[in-house]
Amino acid sequence: MEIKSVNEFEKHINRVLITAEEIGEAVKKAGKEISEEWDGRPLLLVSILKGSFVFLADLNRAITVPCEVGFMAAKSYFEGTESTGTVQITMDLAQDVSRYHVLIVEDIVDTGRTLSEVYKILKARGPLSIKVITLLDKPDRRLVDFDADKALFTIPDHFVIGYGLDLGEYYRNLPYIAEYKE
Ligand code: IMP
Ligand code: MG
Questions:
Q1: Given 3-state DSSP classes, what are the helix, strand and coil percentages for the chain, each rounded to the nearest 5?
Q2: I need a labelling partner for 158 at 20 to 30 A (CA). Which of 80, 89, 166, 170 fits?
């Protein structure tokens, strides 16, 4: 898949599902709640790349207490818009999590495979505590029994793009969440 022109790019944007303003409000509220919950404790936000980098950047700035950020990359293999079920950790976290309360920051929980793998791996390293926040939750698609502690938006079973989420590496730059159209 290669998209070169803005016409081709916009052709696949079906409709805006969550506006930039709605995302902004929800992120601000989540940042406030996190600041209250973790105040006084060493907090490490672990961003799962690449999808969560936009959410992480905004969430991090909505948090008013001291916190650190770390990055981990997980690749779930896709054929078009369907996950094939294979999850691979392609870049590991630099920090030793045993010194931190960990908050995993994810873009979307779809089948649940990626997060359940990442969660298992990080928990085994003995963090002081571990929780998960996701921007989006698609509960109808779940194949693995895994839920985030907090989901900002629950959406129906439709492939979405924007605000960090991609289709074939495109569309991460949209400031809103939109439905993808073939
Ligand atoms: P999982 O199926 O819960 O393991 O989700 C794996 C990854 O697939 C997520 O972290 C996203 O990067 C990607 N993904 C799942 N659903 C969507 C979608 O609707 N749009 C874009 N990416 C998605
Ligand atoms: Mg992705």
A1: 30, 35, 35
A2: 89
Residue nearest to atom 11 of ligand 1 (CA): 108
Pocket test for ligand 1, best of 72, 110, 120, 121 (most atoms within 8 A of CB): 110
In order along its 182 residues, the chain shows pLDDT tens digits of 899 999 999 999 999 999 999 999 999 999 999 999 999 999 999 999 999 999 999 999 999 999 999 999 988 776 667 777 778 899 999 999 999 999 999 999 999 999 999 999 999 999 999 999 999 999 999 999 999 999 999 999 999 999 999 999 999 999 999 999 99
Q: Are 142 and 157 in contact (CB under 8 A)?
A: no
Say how many Å lie between the CA of residue 167 and the centre of ligand 2.
Answer: 7
In total, the chain counts a number of residues equal to 182
Which of 171, 142, 146 lies closest to 155, judged by CA?
Answer: 142
Please report which ligand is nearest the Cα atom of 156. Answer: 1
* Orientation angle between helical segments 20-38 and 53-62, nearest 10 degrees: 60
CATH of 40-77+86-175, one of 3.40.50.2020, 3.40.50.300, 3.40.50.720, 3.90.180.10: 3.40.50.2020
* CB of 114 closer than 6 angstroms to any ligand 1 atom: yes
**Atom 22 of ligand 1, residue of closest alpha carbon:** 165
Our answer to whether residue 110 is catalytic in this structure is yes
